[in-house]
Write the structure tokens for this entry.
Amino acid sequence: MIDENKRPDDMLRITTPALAEQFIADQIAKVRKQVGNGKVLLALSGGVDSSVVAALLLKAIGQQLVCVHVNHGLMRKGESEQVVEVFRNQLKANLIYIDATDRFLDKLAGVADPEAKRKVIGGEFIRVFEEEARKLKDVNFLAQGTIYPDILESHGVKAHHNVGGLPEDLKFQLVEPVKLLFKDEVRVVGSALGLPDGMVFRQPFPGPGLGVRCTGAITRDRLAALRESDAILREEFTKAGLVGKVWQFFTVVPDYRSTGVRNGKRVFDWPVVIRAVNTVDAMSATVPELDWALLKRITDRILAEVPGAGRVLYDLSPKAPATIEWE
Ligand code: XMP
């Protein structure tokens, strides 16, 4: 018997647009056969894997696909807007957008322990998604952006969640068109499907989003400082041509205030930490030697433009011993 979760030894590595086109055609036929006239639900985070699955299924079954995008309030600046713009406005997908920001941030208030935060975020995500799934009638299929490393490393579950899945009574048949692909192949397929580069070559972004970079108990003002400083960093890295050259970069705003002076008065503001790393597999990482003028430009902009930011630091710590994220 064929093991559906095992990549056949003779399967070609998808490295070219032509191979991607062939894969897409095969999957379209397969999905149509599997779901017939049925409806398929997909949690669309805007990450590479779920975006590629959405674009693929849209080609295969059009309006039978129902995408749900949950904005947990911990997205980077402009990210949820991009999901709506690309999938609803450009690709005309059936997309339900849920702004659950208040719900998540209220639940997270006062929760300081990193693992407890992850559990709140993951658990709440499942609950919001479940509520939407129950509102929809006649949905029998659930699409997931499972990729081959998920199968190899964590038994088909996306890494790090650890919060259980949907309840038993919500019985769906799974649709997982990219489950035998490696990440680089998913990107080639995404490009062939016409997704924008910004989505296809997006750097990894943890499921708990900015939540693990706003350390300790999350507050709305510090989260706003994190989102703004991260956007400035991304803008300046993009201008400097570092996108695709530095593997992952972001800011962190620790739960700590340090002294400063503004307009002759003492103030107590947050430090903003720049984190930038290069790695092959995220198991170990090095810190790139960034151009001094670039660091200075980013510092000046963050101090001038981000309310509550009083200092900027560059984290020089490699992994190990430091992890890439701060929590
Ligand atoms: P660390 O911090 O462990 O991160 O060196 C390694 C890679 O994994 C990402 N990461 C996460 N991804 N949920 C995710 O989906 C998480 O909870 C999580 N924590 C870390 C991190 O961004 C880096 O790319």
The CA atoms of residues 176 and 325 lie 29 Å apart. Strands lie at 39-43, 65-71, 94-99, 139-143, 173-175, 248-252, 258-262, 265-277, 309-314. DSSP finds ten helices and nine strands in the chain.
